[in-house]
Amino acid sequence: MREDMQYISGVMDELEAIVQDASNVPMRKGLAVVDRSDLLVMLDELRGSLPGELSEAEALRRECAAMVAEAEEDARRIIEDAHRRTEDRVEESEVHRRALRRADEVTERAERYAEEVSSGSEVYRDRVMGQLENWFEDSLVSVGESRQELGGVPVRPVVRTPERQPAQQPEPTEDDNRGWRVSSA
User: Fold this and answer.
1) Which residues pair with 175 in a beta bridge?
2) Cα 182 from Cα 185, distance rounded (Å)
3) How many domains are there within the chain?
């Protein structure tokens, strides 16, 4: 092996000498013209003199890389399997079942509360609409009374019906001397 290394070192020295002695390329600093055939011959000699251990080392390196890749794949599968088994065990545990029951209870309670709020809002809406309806009825009665007073027609009290229907206004039959007719609209 020592002899091979000395030979390789000699070939590399010759390669260096070829590059050092090469003529420079005009106006291109650092570039040189090298005889291709000399350089290729030297590289072939160098390649042929490399010890067989180097190719064995390269084969070992590739084999090692393949073993590492296989080990990483095995590790990934083991971890995935462990996660899957852990999830299965969690789903089978009493704590998980209690958590699901508790979640169902909270959901049911929230739905009941939502229904109560919804029905409460409907009651409130009906009450507000009834108050508005009464206010408008009172306003219409007041407007009708004012129109009758302005037209000289006597005012009759308006009776409300329990179904919140607008009170019936009497139909005036007399015309004012200005040509106006009193109506309930």
Assistant:
1) 181
2) 9
3) 1
The two structure tokens encoding residue 96? 């998980």
**Other residues' Cβ atoms within 10 Å of the Cβ of residue 81:** 10
In a domain, 152, yes or no: no
Please indicate, yes or no, if residue 24 is contained in any of the structural domains. Answer: yes
Full-model pTM: 0.33
Structure tokens at 174: 């007399």
Cβ within 8 Å of residue 96, ≥6 positions away: 90
Q: Are 34 and 19 in contact (CB under 8 A)?
A: yes
* Interval 71-96: pLDDT, tens: 999 999 999 999 988 888 877 788 87
Q: What is residue 179's DSSP assignment? A: S
- State the CB neighbour count (10 A cutoff) for residue 45: 15
Domain of 8 in residue numbering reads as 1-50
Lowest mean pLDDT among 24-28, 44-48, 154-158, 167-171: 167-171
Contact in structure between 13 and 51 (CB atoms under 8 Å): no
Task: Say if 131 falls within a structural domain.
Answer: no
The answer to whether 51 and 4 are in contact (CB under 8 A) is yes
pLDDT > 90: percent of the chain: 25
